């Protein structure tokens, strides 16, 4: 199976982005680095898809504050940026694709992906919101590309915790750190997720969901 | 302006549901009590819309753990229940409306609604996930009704914190309580939200959104 | 029973402090406003104790982020300030009282106080740390005064959530608010706590405590 | 420097305790396994101190829900158990040592220990409450032993997050996991802490502390 993994460059003043650090460690997959820029990120992703012809595409982004690897279930047609992207763009309530559907569901088997990450020893769960910043933008863009140009590709998005090195100096000695996860552990989860995406045809029928 | 507010009956073993307690306190609006049952809840809502002919419909549900009133932005076409509903139904990965779009956006001016609640003194924010249980089911059902039968209606969904009385006995004397909000305060927020929904044509262009 | 309640002035740039707003609303008790200043706060408290001759003294402070009213169990002999106090003093690892004991337990019946607040409808719990800023400083100072000058007084400390008005503008429209509680509700809890402190001789033997 | 590290056996139905898994991995230190039993745990610790004659003793326990390694600053003279210990004992408001002081401060250089763990790449912070269960019991017991029998020993307590393997099956596929940390990473922090405890005479004067 040909897999393409995309990670992001650092943003919001950070010097590393664990999504890129981790995707580089996944064996047997192409890794592409995306700019944290509305529009340009999706353009770069499309170029990589044309170049590598993947069967599975998993985009990966950082979710500061989350404690586990989260497999996103749905991308929404909305750009609404709390902070500027790396090119200074800060859209407010703009569609990712004008005229596009309100949302796309991931075509990854999201519950099987979570089960595979957990089986590999890495805490993981399904998430129902990828936010409204560049991560959701790329996720929606990917699913729109699949819907319009690459119908044979299976695709989705995974959010990952920050790396431990990012939370070592976030306050005085008594300030508790936000949750973090080593990038090697994130990479193990991504490896399991990509494998599940290639092997599992129908998603697992696991009872779950969020009450709100 | 004719407004219809819907609240839910208690579920998951609770004896009260703050959504219903609060909607009954909103002056000048019809209030309808929905069963916490997939399918039946939307049927009841449709009947009330036919009966009252509202211009604005706001459905309201409980979100245990949230600390403020949240105006939901998007409903997704997915029923995935962590617990059974009040009729014992527990769907797994079932569409709300087979063949329906992946999602609908609220047609309430969500940022103006948040601003109105805050102006009324009640903490509030926009949320990008209403979960996958009966709340999201009714929210999606409402927006689908609007899209297919009631095109003149403006509609959306608001999640509210639990009431203080629900968290008084959740553990021993040293167990911190989850966040709660008096139902009178929730009702003030809902009143402000309904008013904003009737008065505001275009939503406020406030910088915001979620990073993830 | 003669009761003295102490609240604090605003600090860290805030314009209100819910502790002072709430103590002023408790019927039948003297209320004293303390400066948020190491040393001066305890001096002011001692002067009020000399003036009013209370049988019960409850000092009250703000705990931003907490969702319920917390009755503190233990004061420690440590000033360690993350931010400057209102006079610009920012001690690091300094004892409250040089040569004093490492800690004092509150002599309020803390579990009975929690039970009384809950019975009054207000979420509450016992806390095992009052921090190391001016709140803990005053709490320790109070218990030291009781140990050395006012042996007939029963005393303790209560932390309260921020008021709703303090969290209305803490971010964009999609930024969730931290937990808050109306000051009238806080005042009801304080009234119940002061009453319990006067009536209950031996604390309730309720199973509880914190695992960590 | 002769160091003794103590970890706990599993409790509350768990099959592993990361404190014991991690202390076994610290090079150059004696490791002792403590029962999660009031009284017996301190007896076992005392026996190990007599046997090994350590200069530094660090007891380590699990703190489910915390995201980083926390160096405890103060032990209080209170046993108040939310759940039974492994022998079925569940004390309510009982002193650890009848007639003992209300609290002991750790004699580890707690801020230097946090700085050392962070320098080793592991998120860490100072905590001001070790709870009121067996962890605090052993911490108080250790400091009382030091105060009464082993005046030359430097001692303290460290709480550690749960291991990833403990949170893999805590709910359905959409249930977010609580924070966790690999035990190898915990062991790196403990190694750095023990080293700092042996090398640092006076603690670092770092601005810090908790507001509440």
UniProtKB/TrEMBL annotation, chains A, B, C, D:
Catalytically driven reaction(s): Release of an N-terminal pyroglutamyl group from a polypeptide, the second amino acid generally not being Pro
HAMAP family in the cross-refs: Pyrrolid_peptidase (MF_00417)
Family in the record: Belongs to the peptidase C15 family.
CDD domains: Peptidase_C15
GO MF term list: pyroglutamyl-peptidase activity
Function: Removes 5-oxoproline from various penultimate amino acid residues except L-proline.
Gene Ontology biological process: proteolysis
Organism, as annotated: Planomonospora parontospora
Protein's name in the database: Pyrrolidone-carboxylate peptidase
EC number: 3.4.19.3
UniProt xrefs under InterPro entries: Peptidase_C15 (IPR000816), Peptidase_C15-like (IPR016125), Peptidase_C15-like_sf (IPR036440), PGP-I_bact-type (IPR029762), PGPEP1_Cys_AS (IPR033694), PGPEP1_Glu_AS (IPR033693)
Subunit structure: Homotetramer.
NCBIfam families on file: PRK13197.1 (NF009676), pyro_pdase (TIGR00504)
Active-site positions on this chain: 72, 135, 159
């Amino acid at each position: 199976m040909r897999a393409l993994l995309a990670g992001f460059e650092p943003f919001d003043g950070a010097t590393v982005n664990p999504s890129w650090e981790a995707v580089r460690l996944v064996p047997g997959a192409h890794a592409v680095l995306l700019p944290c820029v509305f529009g340009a990120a999706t353009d770069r992703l499309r170029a990589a898809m044309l170049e590598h012809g993947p069967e599975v595409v998993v985009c990966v982004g950082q979710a500061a504050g989350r404690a586990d690897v989260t497999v996103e279930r749905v991308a929404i047609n909305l750009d609404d940026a709390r902070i500027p992207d790396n090119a200074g763009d800060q859209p407010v309530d703009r569609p990712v694709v004008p005229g596009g559907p309100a949302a796309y569901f991931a075509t990854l088997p999201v519950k099987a992906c979570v089960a595979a990450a957990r089986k590999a020893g890495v805490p993981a769960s399904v998430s129902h919101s990828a936010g409204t910043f560049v991560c959701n933008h790329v996720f929606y863009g990917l699913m729109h590309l699949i819907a319009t140009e690459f119908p044979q590709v299976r695709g989705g998005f995974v959010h990952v915790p920050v790396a431990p090195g990012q939370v070592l100096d976030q306050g005085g000695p008594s300030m508790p750190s936000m949750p973090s996860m080593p990038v090697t552990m994130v990479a193990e989860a991504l490896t399991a997720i990509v494998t599940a995406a290639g092997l599992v045809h129908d998603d697992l029928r696991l009872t779950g969901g969020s009450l709100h």
